[in-house]
Amino acid sequence: MTGASDMIDWDLAVRLGSRIATDGPKVTREEAEAAVEELRDDAARSTQLVRDFTGLEAPDGTAPVLVIDRKGWVQANADGFKTVLAPLVDKLTEKRPPSGAAKVIGRKITGAEVGGLLGFLCTKVLGQFDPFFSPAGRLLLVAPNIVHIERELGVDPTDFRLWVCLHEETHRVQFTANPWLRDHLFDQVGQLAGLTDAGSLLDDLVGRIAQVVRGDGPTGSLIDLVSTPEQREIFDRLTAVMSLLEGHADVVMDGVGPKVIPSVEHIRSKFTERRKGVGTLDRILRRLLGLDAKMAQYRDGATFVRHVVDALGMERFNTIWTGPDTLPTLAEIHDPEAWIQRVPGL
Q1: Would you say 144 and 70 are in contact if contact means Cβ atoms under 8 Å apart?
Q2: Which of 60, 62, 118, 173 could make an S-S bridge to 136, C-beta 3.0–4.6 Å?
Q3: What is d(CA 211, CA 5) in angstroms, rounded to the nearest whole number?
Q4: Which of helix, strand or coil describes residue 140?
C-alpha cells in the first residue's frame, strides 16, 4: 500500500468525504436502533431465502454483515480503494515517481478528489458487498440511506428493508459461494494498471470534466475518455461481470420478493423511477462517474439472467459460476443465446 499512500492522502479523503456526507435523515435514538436491528435480522433471514432461490451454497460464518452510517461507508470504501487502486498507483509511481513539494501537494489534491467522490457517493448507496476486504469480503448496509429512501419513496419500511437486504445478500452469496470471483476481478484491475499511460491521465480527466459540465464533447463517463482499445477490452469484461452480478441480484430480489414482501411491486415501481436520477447536478455527476452505465448494468444483466433461467432453469444457469471461461462476454449479455451456445454442457 506504500504507493497508494504516497500519492493519495487517505486521511484527508476520509475527513472531507465524511464532512460532505452529513448525518442523514432525522431519527430518534430508538428509531435508529430499531432500524439497525431490523436490517441485521433481514440480512440473516435473506441468506436462506437466496440459497433456496439460487441453489448457491455459501459457507456459513464468512463475510460479516455490518450496518453502518455514511461516515462508516466513507472509511470502508477508502480502505477498499487502497486495495483496488494499489496496482494502478504502483504503476503510476513507477513511471513518474513523485518527490518533494510535488509529492506533498499531489497527495493533498488527489486526497481531496477522492474525498469529494466518496462524499457524493455515500449518500446514494443503500448497501454494498466489499469483496476486497480480507479474503472473504464483507457486506455493508448503510442504515441512514435506507431510511432516507424509504421515506422519500413513501414505501413500507419493513418491506423495503428486506427487499434491499435480498439484493445485497445475493452479492454476498455470489462471492462467498464462488471464491475465485474475487481473484478474477482483482486480476482484471491489475491488467488494467499495466496498460495505463500515466502521462496523459490527469489532463484527460480534467478535460473530460469540463466537457461534461459544458454539455459538449463525448457523452460517456470519465472512463470512456481515458481508455485505450486494450483497456476497453478489460472494461468490457468488467462491465459484463458487473452486469451479471447486478442483474442476478435484481432477479433474485424480484423472484423471492412476492413470497415474503407484500408490497414488492409498489417498491420496484417507485425504485426504478428513482434510479433515473434527480436534478441537473445529480445527472452531471452520474454521467461523469458512469452511474448511468451502472443503471444499464441492472437492466441488461437482469434481462440476460431471466432469459437463460427461463431457457435452462436455475441449476443449469449456475454453470455460469464455474470459472472465468463460463462468464458471459459483454456481447453475450446482449445476446443470451450466444452464451448458451458457447458454454459446453448446456
Answers
A1: yes
A2: 62
A3: 30
A4: strand
Give the model's pLDDT for residue 284. Answer: 46
CA nearest to 333, candidates 309, 289, 297 = 297
| Dist CA 10 CA 83 (whole Å) | 12
Domain ranges (residues) in the chain: 2-342
Whether the predicted pLDDT of 48 surpasses 50 = yes
Give, to the nearest 10 degrees, the angle between helix 10-21 and helix 70-95: 150
Which runs of consecutive H residues, i.e. helices, occur in 122-227?
143-153, 157-177, 180-194, 198-214, 222-226
Q: How many whole angstroms separate alpha carbon 10 and alpha carbon 6?
A: 10
Alpha-carbon dihedral of residues 22, 205, 221, 331, nearest 10 degrees?
-130
- Residue 18 neighbours by CB distance under 10 Å: 21
244 in Cβ contact with 329 (< 8 Å)? no
Residue 140 pairs with which residues in a beta bridge?
66, 128
Identify the three-state secondary structure at position 138. strand
Residue pointed to by grid coordinates 448457491: 56
| CA-wise closest residue to 114 among 198, 267, 209, 10 | 10
By the 8 A CB rule, do 252 and 168 touch? no
Q: In this structure, are residues 247 and 297 in contact, taking their beta carbons and an 8 Å threshold?
A: yes
In 3D space, the residue among 232, 199, 235, 192 whose CA is nearest the CA of residue 92 turns out to be 199
> Contact, 42 vs 118, CB < 8 A?
no
The answer to whether the CB of 269 falls within 8 A of the CB of 260 is no
Burial of 99 (0-12, 13-18, 19+ CB in 10 A): exposed
SS3 24: coil
Average pLDDT, the chain: 81
Q: What is the C-alpha to C-alpha distance for residues 222 and 217, in angstroms, rounded to an integer?
A: 12
Which residues sit opposite 138 in a β-bridge? Answer: 130
Distances (CA, A) of 130 to 66, 84, 171, 260, 333: 11, 11, 9, 26, 24
Q: What is the model's pLDDT at position 281?
A: 44
